[in-house]
Design brief:
Length: 281
């Protein structure tokens, strides 16, 4: 066990292995970076400064992801199985930027289900094989930190909570995504969405799901169960008194966290229809 954690003989500049000290240090560093954003956001909560911080964050995520996509598609780097921005985490990064900038409910919903529900797996079972000297090492860690950091920020600071409608939207858009990447996977024999006829080099939960194509249906079933859990945890927590809604005068929607600054008293939220009087007691 000690040898596994220390990864003796591993060249950290050129190699990365999951379930090692290297893995632990990178994961802790990313979580600390996210926690710093949560602290800043909570201190600025319900203020114009918070909106500025969040929007600038969103633009940074977008700019970073554009640079990353350009690098992967640059001549000499291009690989049909990896370079197209079709992995769910690739799309989730663009969704994170849109959610932070616009606060549109559909983007926040996708960020929640794709970020919290699916992108977090990258921290537990990273498919990365190269070390810190390779640009894609940093692309992997920074991109996933931006996604999950944005998703958790939207929960902790902006108060996002999924409704049944959001669960259905999450299901529907994920099924549409699966349909598109399945067509791509079959056309070029690749593995976007991890539902193709190959598995990552590093061990993941996918290795336990048997052979393809039945494996793809098992993945779909696991995702469906996970989405239901991610939705159901909030009504359960509310019933047990573990979470509370926002104050009616907090300047944000008590149900979805949408910014209501400047809105007339009692006017419905343009995102979900709730009013400030609908705060959870």
């Amino acid at each position: 066990m000690i040898q596994v954690m220390l990864a003796e003989g591993m060249d950290w500049g050129r190699q990365f292995r999951p379930f090692t000290l290297y893995h632990l240090l990178m994961t802790v560093s990313c979580v600390l970076a996210m926690a710093g954003a949560w602290v800043i956001g909570k201190r600025l909560e319900s203020s114009a400064a918070e909106a500025k911080f969040r929007i600038n964050w969103g633009w940074c995520v977008l700019a970073y992801k554009i640079v990353e996509t350009a690098w992967y598609n640059w001549p000499g780097n291009f690989d049909i199985g990896e370079s197209l921005p079709l992995q769910l985490c690739d799309l989730a990064a663009f969704v994170a930027a849109a959610a932070m900038i616009t606060q549109k409910r559909v983007f926040r919903t996708l960020l929640y289900f794709w970020g919290i529900g699916l992108s977090t797996q990258a921290f537990f079972t990273p498919i990365l094989t190269v070390g810190y000297l390779a640009p894609n090492f940093w692309f992997f860690w920074v991109s996933h930190t931006m996604i999950i950091g944005s998703a958790t920020y939207d929960i902790i600071v902006r108060g996002y909570r999924p409704a049944v409608k959001d669960l259905l939207i999450g299901f529907g858009l994920t099924v549409a995504y699966a349909g598109v990447v399945t067509a791509v996977n079959l056309t070029w024999d690749v593995n976007y969405g991890y539902i193709g006829n190959t598995t990552p080099e590093n061990p993941t939960i996918i290795d336990k799901l048997g052979s393809w194509p039945l494996r793809a249906f098992k993945v779909a079933g696991l995702v469906a169960v996970l989405f239901v859990i991610l939705w159901g945890v909030w009504p359960l927590a509310k019933k047990l008194g573990l979470v509370k809604g926002r104050r009616p005068d907090s300047g944000t929607c008590p149900t979805c966290g949408y910014d209501l600054t400047g809105a007339a008293a009692g006017s419905p939220c343009p995102e979900c229809g709730a009013t400030r009087q609908d705060a959870i007691p």
